[in-house]
Amino acid sequence: MKIRSQKKLVGVFCLPLIFAISSGCRRASDTADMPQAIKTKSGIEMVAIPGGWFEMGSKKGASDESSVHRVWVSPFWMDKYEVVQEQFKKYQISDPSHFKNPKNPLEQMNWTDAARYCNERSLAEDLEPCYNEETWQCNFEANGYRLPTEAEWEYACRAGTRTKYSFGNNVRKLKANAWFAENSSRRTHPVGQKKPNPWGLYDMHGNVTEWCNDYYCENYYKQSPEKDPKGPAAGQERVLRGGAWNRRADSCRSAYRASDPSIDDTCLASDAIGFRCVRKAPDEKSTEGDMVKENQSGRTSKTGFLYDDIYLEHKTTEGHPEAPQRLVTIVERLKAKGLHWQLFPLTPAPAPLECLTTVHTPEYIERVKKSCEGGTRYLDSLDTPVSPKSYDAALMAAGGVLSAIDAVMQKKVTNAFCAIRPPGHHATKNEAMGFCIFNNIAVGARYIQKKYNLSKILIVDWDVHHGNGTQAMFYDDPAVLYFSVHQYPFYPGTGSKAEKGSGKGLNYNINVPLPAGSGDGDYLMAFEEELKPAALAFSPDFVLISAGFDAHKDDLLGGMEVTSQGFAELTKVVKGIVERCCEGRLVSVLEGGYHPEGLAASVEAHIRVLMR
Length: 612
Ligand SMILES: [Zn+2]
Fold this sequence. Notes:
single chain, 612 residues, alpha/beta, eight-stranded parallel sheet, 16 helices
């Protein structure tokens, strides 16, 4: 097995960095839900890996690990453990392993022997073998077993993490997670004895290094396709991934790449090389999992999900409905449903002051900053409690909307959902109100107009409360059509049908007040009969949704009866508008929603429609 020499150097120089970087431990997104475990027909345990995006490679690793790039991997199943010696014997192939033990991984495995095993195992389970045993070409369409692609291997190894190892950056933890040079006593060990990675896969960082299907190419990362990369068409060596009993800690990193020429029967392979199998996820899994659909123009469509832990740092008072837990519940639900990994991750940056001042006065912004940092408990009313980090969170909430808009405009994503707080639509130009500090959606609308020269913006506000702040900011502006459907009479008191805009903005403000107790049918009727004709006549260049989910039937504040499926239906209407008017350009921004489960279920239903 050939290990490139520069990697050994990397291992030495990166140690101080490993301790300095600890980004992994704080994020809510690291509490990954376990994908489903499966037992195959012949009793082998596998893990159903959901499809998803991830960042492949490493900036700090060896040159063949760069450049870091986003890759989409379709759903697949992967062996929970490395293939062990007792499994191999079932197919009457003689066991080449050096360290004999039925539960130890197979080693001294040529690549072709590994591929042959995949075919035997497929036949034993009545599946179509993937490998042509003359050319050793892999048929990825077959439903049988094969070796993982490098992308699949790294995606599964990372299990949603971006750190050096699947357990973080702390190399001292490697001993609990892997058999490698420092703890192996120079031999392999029975599989499954060390801690699994967050997706329940064992020995990804050590024991034996594992064959991938791909030919090795040092520069492959610089040219690989975005969706399901399968490696170069030809080569002299095949890729190996994961560390081994005789390798140092650096070789055990998630992004570490190695290769070996022992791909056919004539070469003797190393006793540190083994493998594990994967197979295509059966169709019923992949339909839900596969978010990548080609539209007419052949462009890949994706939905972005913007979130950051800073939003949890805006602390309200105990028992306040607008609590950090709202976002935690949303993220947990998306993970539990296997959706989180399919969404394109977007991260916010603080909104620049010149963007905030398009809708807020500089004095107000300064007052918010001083109040939060100075330890003030409430902003302007008892409704809006703040904590020392609330100003930072509020800047990032508005800035998050801008990042999502950029991602849509730069075609990184087709549309996006911003899981942000504090919410925004009650905030006026110089006052905090109703849990809102900065008017995130209004800042977003002005940003689209200024930065991208798109003049006509439609804001659809289905929060149960009327968005008085947003209405006021665009009341005389014919370039921004504000449409709100809300419970009425209700907080904040505005939102009657008679409020239609003023001056040039007359008729560019549409309120549909609904009585308490209104449900899916009433909302849908408002959308079909009032929103749709007005929106199509206006023909927006970009659509923003003030997506509050407090009209949900279980909500603690709202008195409406909308179901999560109802929100999906409303989303479909808006999506129909953006597809007809503005090439699908849509950013949806969280406002209210105070029943955590009802909120999370509604966000899930909403996002599922965005992803279609
Ligand atoms: Zn609300």
